[in-house]
Amino acid sequence: MAERKAVNKYYPPDWDPRKGSANKRVGQHPLRDRAKKLSQGILVIRFELPYNIWCGGCGSHIGMGVRYNAEKSKVGNYYTTPIYKFRMKCHLCDNYFEIQTDPKNHDYVILSGARRKEQRWDPVANEQVVPEDKATQKKLATDPMYKLEHGSDDHQRGKDKVMSLAQIEESRVSMLDDYNLNRKARDMFRTEKKQMKDAAEADRAILERASLNIDLVEESEEDRKLAGLMKYSVTSSYEEKQMEKRKIIELRPIFNTEDSLVPTSLSLSSSPSSSDVSPNQKQIPAAVNQQGDLKSKLSRVLKATFKDPFKSGGKKFFGK
To answer: Which residue intervals are annotated with compositional bias (Low complexity) in the record (predicted)?
Structure first.
């Protein structure tokens, strides 16, 4: 159907070729609806996006190569090269975006309605062959010394490429022995698998010993250094502390005889004066002093009532 409209195979019987084409006879343009704004300098064409863009209306990503019915119009010239502008509507929303040609930089520029997805790079850094600009070509044609220097640079660049090709060839030859490569890969995988299994067993043992249910991260060099700087002090268990207390109690005498042998006058005279008492001793609470007095009184009463059976030679017990 589109071919029939474009070619115009049908001619009516009353058509006279001396009066013009069939389109002129019926008052139509050969491009039909595409040329409805031709009086404004706008022609509808099929435009293909030169790169990936982001729509400014809906924010959707539109890939390179998507085609639109765009309104093409001429907006200026770069020397003798015309500059064209293309206006099209996003197929996902009602937003319009405009793209313009840039003959100076051999590129397309987005004017409004969208933004470019930056995927540009330097062709020289990407090791691509960059054509010489007009000024360099003119200088090569007119300056023999510059042409000689430029040729030496190309020669050196060619030598570098030969070295790269040799490395590629060496790598290709090393990949021909697929049996040994497969064996080395399997050995490496077995070693890594064993290391991973040992690490998992060690982590599981740590988690069971500490009663934890978390995922342990891998050790780092910084963790090893910190662990080497740490020092641990030996702490006694509860049973060991209880045994030490029992030993102290067993070694303590049953009756304290020191307080009974010391006279009261001597104990009073030997007591330090208030001026000789240190500030720390002045701060002893009264409850502690009362407890000591009660203990000494109780020991004196017991010693006055009972005698030490171990000092009597086993003949006298408790005043008998």
So the answer is: 263-279
107 shares its domain with 139:
no
Domains held by the chain: number? 2
Whether the Cβ atoms of residue 106 and residue 130 lie closer than 8 Å to each other: no
Report the pLDDT value the prediction gives residue 109, as an integer from 0 to 100: 95
pLDDT value of residue 263: 45
Q: Are residues 84 and 153 in the same domain?
A: no
Q: What is the pLDDT of residue 185?
A: 92
How far apart are the C-alpha atoms of 62 and 124, rounded to whole Å? Answer: 28
Pair 58, 92: CB distance under 8 Å: yes
Q: Is residue 292 in some structural domain?
A: no
- pLDDT tens figures, 87-118: 999 999 999 999 999 999 889 999 999 999 98
286 assigned to some structural domain:
no
Q: Closest Cα to residue 256, out of 210, 299, 314?
A: 299
Phi and psi of 61, rounded to 5°? -90, 130
Q: What per-residue confidence (pLDDT) applies to 288?
A: 46
Range of the domain at 141: 134-174
Based on the domain organization, do 144 and 112 belong to the same domain? no
Q: Is residue 222 part of a domain?
A: no
pLDDT of residue 113: 92
- Give CA separation, 288 vs 54, 259, 262, 273, 293, in Å: 85, 17, 21, 19, 9
Sign of CA dihedral 51, 55, 59, 62: negative
| Alpha helices (H) along the chain | 2-7, 22-26, 134-142, 144-174, 178-210, 221-229, 238-251, 258-261, 264-269, 279-282, 286-305
- The length of the chain is 320
Residue ranges for the chain with pLDDT beneath 50: 259-285, 287-288, 305-306, 313-320
Q: Residue 99 CB: number of other CB atoms within 10 A? A: 25
Q: What was the pLDDT predicted at 231?
A: 72
Residue 190: the pLDDT is 95
In contact, 147 and 140? CB cutoff 8 Å: yes
